[in-house]
Amino acid sequence: METKRVVEKDSPLKKDDLIVITGAGGFIAGNLALYFTKKGFTRIRAVDKKPLYEWYQHVPGAENLCLDVSHEENCRRVCEGAVEVYQLAADMGGMGFIERFRVECLRSILINTHMIEAAYRAGTRRYFYPSSACAYNVLLQQDPKVRALKESDAYPAMAERGYGWEKLISEMFCQEYWAERGMKTHIARFHNVYGPNGTWDGGREKAPAALCRKVIEAIDKQDMNITLWGDGTPTRSFMYIDDCTKGIDMIMHCDELIATPINLGSHELVSINRLLSKVEKIAGVKLKRHYDLNAPRGVAGRNSDNTFIRKMLKWEPKTSLDDGLAITYAWIKEQYLKRKAGQRVGIG
Ligand SMILES: NC(=O)c1ccc[n+]([C@@H]2O[C@H](COP(=O)([O-])OP(=O)(O)OC[C@H]3O[C@@H](n4cnc5c(N)ncnc54)[C@H](O)[C@@H]3O)[C@@H](O)[C@H]2O)c1
After folding, report:
1. Is any atom of ligand 1 closer than 6 Å to the C-beta of 27?
2. Are 26 and 52 contacting, i.e. CB atoms less than 8 angstroms apart?
3. How far apart are CA 59 and CA 97, in angstroms?
4. C-alpha 18 – ligand 1 centre gap (Å)
5. In this structure, are residues 301 and 144 in contact, taking their beta carbons and an 8 Å threshold?
6. Has this prediction a pTM greater than 0.85?
7. Phi, psi angles (nearest 5°) of residue 184
8. Catalytic residue (choose from 56, 86, 136, 163)
């Protein structure tokens, strides 16, 4: 029979403790690096394999490393001296990417396998892993009027092919590094995150960014048509980035949540059709909709059951989709116009 580990209290995190954030040239990790800098942490090591000029953000004062963390020796270098590690590097994207590049998604297992071992060997105190709603059993997501997914719905397992299975096995690594080796690991299952400084073009973008860009393009080209992937009926919830970074921090520093997957997502369910209506309202236009029924569409419905996070943290993501989308639309429009004017902008 398994014995439960006793959780020893950490000494409080000091502002000059080294925080390592991988995937920091990308969306969530870049915003997380900024979040911790704003909180006053002075030693942040930001890591990504993309060249520095392609990072969305460069956080002032951070040590920026351009390294591929699917290689073991790089992971050792990255984790040296780390008190906390936030492992957000992954080969990922929206539906179009994860349905088409399942092998690439599965190969992220190299990143997670080497990073967690390197963190453990470096004596890291806490390790954060971003799992996904794609880890949930797809058989529970076949109706747009979906019952929101609760944490126990991952098993019996029938995760999303490729991406979802990689997430599930990486969660398991986190659980066993705690059970067998005593490293405090924390696992959040994100439900679609959106906001500024994320992918908005190029094939890896998710629905909110893709719809904002398509509307901006339609207005710019004065072609008032838009093509949606699928029939517009699938439903999802979308979490604004500021809720995501705050939630990561809260989950990582909650001893009751060690090695315990928890939903981190919004509970506000919308159809893709409705999401487009919201973007149109922000832009002040109405476009003629066309539906590409051969495009990737994903599961029929997916929402986050927030009972557990409310109970554990007395908190849940709160930014309304209307508010978050307005900020995101403005940011994407700015990027679009900069690119049109010949300036270099990150897209993904
Ligand atoms: N964005 C979402 O809605 C969402 C939902 C669920 C889970 N997640 C998870 O959150 C994490 C971050 O997602 P994101 O949306 O910020 O993605 P992102 O693509 O914007 O960022 C990931 C970053 O990882 C980097 N990367 C990839 N392989 C690398 C490697 N071998 N070495 C170093 N860097 C590497 C990429 O260059 C990229 O900048 C991922 O693990 C993702 O699966 C995201």
Report:
1. yes
2. no
3. 28
4. 21
5. yes
6. yes
7. -75, 115
8. 163
